[in-house]
Specification:
Chain B: It is a multi-pass membrane protein; Peripheral membrane protein. The complex is a heterodimer of chains A (about 325) and B (about 675). With about 325 residues, chain A is α/β, with parallel strands linked by helices. Chain A is built from 14 helices and twelve strands. Chain A folds into two domains: about 240 residues, Rossmann fold (3-Layer(aba) Sandwich), CATH 3.40.50; about 70 residues, no CATH class. Chain B is α/β, with parallel strands linked by helices. Among the domains of chain B are: about 270 residues, MetI-like fold (Orthogonal Bundle); about 80 residues, no CATH class; about 100 residues, no CATH class. Chain B is built from 27 helices and twelve strands. In chain B, a hairpin with a 2-residue loop joins strand 4 and strand 5. Chain B is elongated, with a radius of gyration of 35 Å. The N terminus and C terminus of chain B are likely disordered. The chains are: A alpha/beta (about 325), B alpha/beta (about 675).
Chain lengths: ~325, ~675
């Protein structure tokens, strides 16, 4: 039932490269105590793996649980069920000292360039923090911070400045520098370029690609924009209401989506070519996907059933398992 | 490669200097208060060296006397010099108030930081502080006095504990919002523990409030000490203290009323000083120095614009109803920098114009100027906004009020801002309809329902009864559109209406706008930075850069056949322009960033970032016909580039590719 079955088709690669990250049957509910037990799951039985050097894109609408998965991996959100393992060791409930060891290898870049750096600390102090926590001497931390700033295209003197003296794009590069300063293996990027203008977005995407190629990094690249994801990711996981709808190679998922939701998502992403966009619009309208606004929370069955144009009685009663269709895994009774 | 960019501003002073010193020095009251407190403490600590009398020296000739040459402030019932006693005891009295401050603010802050760090702790602490706040403070203090006598330090400490519950309330919200910042998440990922986060990331953000609250609690502490003394619970008699002095003065209110004056005045001054310091520090930095231009400058601007409009030739042909023609529009900060210069475009009824460009290019300023909604301190400095032949740039506020909402409506990027959280959707919508359509209650109610259905809301009845926070972002944007449509506008100005929405919802909103344009003949000015949105809905497009239109014309011709280097660059940087198969290794970028208005060069404003810039670009560049359809372009090399078929170059791919090494390992 997990996507591991799908990955078996890639058996050779899977065997020779042990997973960098493995997420198994992950369930997350918000709240605590009895409230959590009865709350609907924000993440509901999610499985995926990221291999060394691989970028996996996580897409879905807002509220679909993308950020929650990122937080669960980073230990920022309590996990209600399932497991997360990093380089073969289980970190699902790792305590803070274990997290501190991990912190160097498992890093994050967050969305909002305005709030991801402490406005009251110099850039140098923010960059040095992860090193200082690990006992690196102040002078060395500072020189590493300067090197890293240079690597992301900022002047070394930036160490003594404050975040407010930089533009959004520059701040996002500083966040990337902060994530990469302790030579990580896996970086979780949560909407890392969503708040940026086109040209700045391109700069940060290129920077992420350069650093990945230089250092063999793995990324979990979370974004609501499937085109941005397909620039960076080799594989894509499509999420709807906390469940995986479709997963597979980026080209397959974005160019011949199998799941009705993925089809709707791809068709809704506008392209800057007027004639082609008119075609896409017609295609989107012909799909007949119902608006999210009309829908109340679904009980059992397929989470997409109330919006899906193909839904049948079976769809409202039985949750479809993720099964392999072509190169992809698809959770739909009729894919 | 990534271009290197030098940040502009100069480094600032330390955070500490930022939050306190400056504000204190710029507020006369705060400064005076600080000087008084400092003088008091200094005088008190150095008292043994300069005071005319020892505190216990008795001059029986001066018992209960008023001011005299020998005793400047008079003497008390034992003939002791008041001046000496007041100053000698100042430090002690201030010190006991400080106990309340340290205990109250310290405990309150620690509780707030603890609660902010953990939901469970918050539950417990909030319950405990609620109980504390419901306890009768006076009764507890009197009970303590009954049990242990007038031990002032202990009483002040207990007072601090009682006050801490209130401080906790004040700080909790702020601590929680600091705790939820992404940089706190980033620090957690670094492995910084809970305590480290509170001390390093939350406390510095709370410092301002801590300082302000301390000053205010300090004043409260002084007053309570005095009040206790007045009702007879002052400190033990022999040591001098303000409370003690007030206490003994209170016993001579009838026979020697003067006795109350010196200690009372000093106390009052001290309390006022502490309050003044608190107010000075609490003031937001902007509140003091207003950036608003003087009314005179604004009036002159308006008069100039009106004169310019009057001098301009009248519009040639009588315009069609619902025709918008913007001619040479300039917008600027009053008495200073221009923000938008010489913008010209037309919007015919039933068409959609896109204004595109990066943030900071003047799109929003242009858009809101169409409704006369420029922020204060910014105004139209030239050109005309012709709506049905009437120049809105020189229209009075009253004229604009008649047009806003009825003829021209606005929807903004954040739909929630258009909605008042205090009222239901139904109330706001019917109120708008009644005002704009002069409709009756029942009629407005029916119209509200049909508007919501028109914008694609299925369960309109339920939404009408909902408050804004109870609906999703996409739903709120639909409601905002319904609100904008309530006056049956002929022109809709939409500022990034879909930027904050999911693509699936964006597609629905765009479809909705398209059908409204088709069915009602309404026209739309759509501000966006998304070229896909332009391709989807706009008939015409104006590409803006640094306050100018750099390229304009029919959407199809501009997106398929761009002429201006900036348009070329935007398209090359857009990952949506490619599919997974033709996705380039690296996207094209534009080095540097959009210049600030004050830094605009005299020549082509894009020159510093342009791959094709040359010496010919150093002179001002006019907007000229581009030769393709009715397009216009502002670039001296546009023809040359078109002839040679040059495009914006993508960045180089780095040579050393670690990925290849990884692949080798895997083979
Ligand atoms: N702190 C929180 N408390 C309660 N519910 C939350 C919290 N954060 C997110 N959620 C809910 O969890 C679900 C998934 O949210 P999230 O992971 O943020 O989605 P995404 O990142 O895909 O937008 C949503 O229903 C959201 O409302
Ligand atoms: S399982 Fe049914 S409802 Fe769900 S996506 Fe497939 S067809 Fe649609
Ligand atoms: S005028 Fe010169 S600098 Fe400006 S866009 Fe054209 S080529 Fe580039
Ligand atoms: Mg998110």
């Amino acid at each position: 039932m997990s996507i591991d079955t799908v990955e078996l088709e890639d058996a050779e690669a899977a065997l020779s490269a042990p997973a960098m990250l493995e997420v198994k049957d992950l369930v997350v509910r918000y709240g605590h105590g009895r409230k959590a037990a009865s709350a609907p799951a924000a993440v509901d039985g999610v499985n995926f793996t990221i291999r060394p050097g691989e970028t996996v894109g996580l897409v879905g609408e807002s509220g679909s649980g993308k950020s929650t998965i990122g937080k669960a991996i980073l230990g920022l959100q309590k996990v209600s069920g399932g497991s997360v393992s990093f380089q073969g060791s289980d970190i699902t409930h790792a305590n803070s000292s274990r997290r501190q060891e991990l912190g160097g290898e498992l890093r994050a870049v967050f969305q909002d360039p305005n709030s991801s750096l402490n406005p009251r600390k110099t850039i140098g102090a923010s960059l040095a923090e992860p090193l200082r926590v690990r006992g690196v001497a102040a002078a060395e931390a500072r020189s590493r911070a300067e090197d890293m700033l240079e690597r992301v295209g900022l002047p070394r003197e930036a160490v003594d400045r404050y975040p407010s003296q930089f533009s959004g794009g520059q701040r996002q590069r500083i966040s990337v520098a902060r994530a990469l300063i302790c030579e990580p293996k896996l970086v979780v990027c949560d909407e890392a370029v969503s708040a940026l203008d086109l040209s700045t977005q391109a700069q940060v995407l290129n920077l992420l690609a350069d650093l990945r190629d230089e250092r063999g990094l793995s990324y979990l690249f979370i974004a609501h924009d499937i085109s941005v994801v397909q620039f960076l990711a080799q594989r894509v996981v499509v999420l709807y209401r906390g469940q995986i709808m479709e997963t597979g190679p980026a080209a397959a998922v974005t160019e011949s989506p199998k799941h009705p939701f993925t089809q709707a998502l791809v068709a809704a992403s506008p392209v800057p070519r007027p004639a082609e966009q008119a075609e896409r619009r017609k295609l989107r309208e012909s799909l007949g996907v119902r608006t999210a606004a009309a829908v109340a929370a679904s009980a059992g069955g397929c989470p997409f059933s109330q919006r899906c144009p193909l839904a049948t009685d079976l769809c409202t009663t039985e949750r479809p398992a993720l099964r392999s269709v072509g190169q992809s895994g698809v959770a739909c009774h009729y894919a | 490669m990534i271009p290197s960019i030098t940040p502009t501003a100069t480094p600032r002073k330390t955070a500490l200097a930022k939050f306190s010193g400056h504000r204190l020095l710029t507020s006369p009251g705060g400064l005076a208060g600080a000087v008084w407190l400092a003088a008091l403490v200094a005088a008190s600590l150095t008292a043994p060296w300069w005071l005319p009398y020892k505190t216990e020296d008795q001059d029986f000739t001066a018992v209960l006397s008023g001011p005299s040459a020998a005793h400047w402030l008079g003497a008390d019932e034992l003939g002791r010099d008041l001046l000496s006693r007041i100053f000698a005891s100042a430090a002690g009295t201030l010190g006991t108030s400080l106990i309340t401050v340290i205990v109250g603010v310290g405990l309150g802050t620690i509780l707030a930081m603890t609660a902010a760090a953990s939901d469970r702790a918050e539950g417990i602490i909030s319950r405990v502080t609620e109980i504390m706040m419901s306890l009768p403070g006076t009764v507890i203090i009197l009970a303590v006095i009954g049990a242990v006598g007038t031990n002032i330090p202990l009483i002040m400490a207990i007072l601090g504990i009682l006050i801490s519950a209130g401080i906790y309330r004040v700080m909790l919200g702020q601590a929680k919002s600091l705790q939820s910042q992404l940089y706190v998440d980033a620090a957690k990922v670094d492995g910084v523990g809970t305590l480290g986060i509170s001390v390093r990331h939350v406390l510095p953000g709370l410092m301002n409030t801590v300082v302000v609250q301390s000053a205010l609690i300090f004043a409260v502490g002084m007053l309570i000490q005095a009040g206790l003394a007045f009702i007879g619970f002052g400190p033990p008699i022999p040591q001098p203290s303000w409370g003690g002095m007030i206490q003994s003065a209170s016993q001579h209110v009838y026979d020697a009323p003067w006795l109350m004056v010196p200690s009372g005045a000093v106390l009052a001054l001290t309390v006022l000083s502490a309050n003044a310091i608190g107010n000075a520090l609490g003031k937001s930095p902007n509140a003091a120095a207003s950036h608003l231009p003087s009314a005179a400058i604004r009036r002159k601007r308006a008069a100039d614009a009106a004169a310019a409009a009057a001098a301009a030739p009248a519009v040639e042909n009588a315009p069609a109803a619902g025709q918008l023609s913007v001619r040479g529009l300039s917008v600027g900060v009053d008495g200073g920098t221009p923000l938008v210069t010489d913008v010209t475009f037309d919007v015919a009824p039933g068409t959609v114009l896109g204004l595109v460009g990066e943030s900071g290019c003047g799109k929003t300023m242009t858009a809101v100027s169409l409704l006369g909604l420029l922020p204060s301190g910014v105004s139209v400095t030239g050109g005309q906004i012709l709506w049905n032949g009437k120049n809105l740039a020189s229209a009075t506020e009253k004229d604009l009020e008649g047009i806003r909402g009825r003829d021209i409506a606005l929807i903004s990027q954040e739909p929630m801002r258009a909605l008042d959280p205090m009222f239901t959707v139904g109330y706001q919508l019917t109120a708008a309809i009644r005002r704009l359509r002069k409709a009756g209650k029942a009629e407005a109610r029916a119209a509200a329902l049909s508007l919501l259905e028109k914008v694609g809301i299925v369960d309109a009845q339920r939404i009408l009864k909902s408050y804004p926070h109870q609906i999703s972002g996409g739903m709120a944007q639909r409601v905002a559109i319904a609100l904008a449509l309530s006056g049956k506008p002929r022109l809709l100005v939409a500022d990034e209406p879909t930027t904050a929405l999911d693509v699936t919802v964006q597609a629905e909103i765009l479809s909705l706008l398209r059908s409204l344009v088709k069915d009602t003949g309404m026209s739309v000015v759509m501000v966006t930075h998304d070229l896909g949105v332009v391709a989807d809905i706009c008939d015409n497009v104006a590409v803006m850069y640094a306050g100018q239109v750099v390229e304009g014309g029919r959407t199809a011709s501009i997106l398929d056949n761009p002429r201006h280097p900036y348009t070329l660059a935007l398209l090359a940087a857009d990952p949506h322009a490619n599919t997974a198969h033709d996705m380039p290794e690296r996207l094209a970028t534009i080095k540097g960033q959009v210049p600030q208005p004050k830094d605009w060069p005299a020549g082509c404003r894009f020159a510093a970032r342009c791959q094709f810039a040359g010496s010919a670009c150093a002179v001002p560049v006019p907007l000229l016909p581009s030769g393709s359809e009715d397009g216009e372009v502002r670039c001296v090399k546009a023809d040359e580039l078109a002839v040679e078929g040059l495009g914006w170059l993508a960045t180089e791919v780095p040579t050393h590719r670690v990925l290849e090494i990884v692949e080798k390992d895997m083979a």
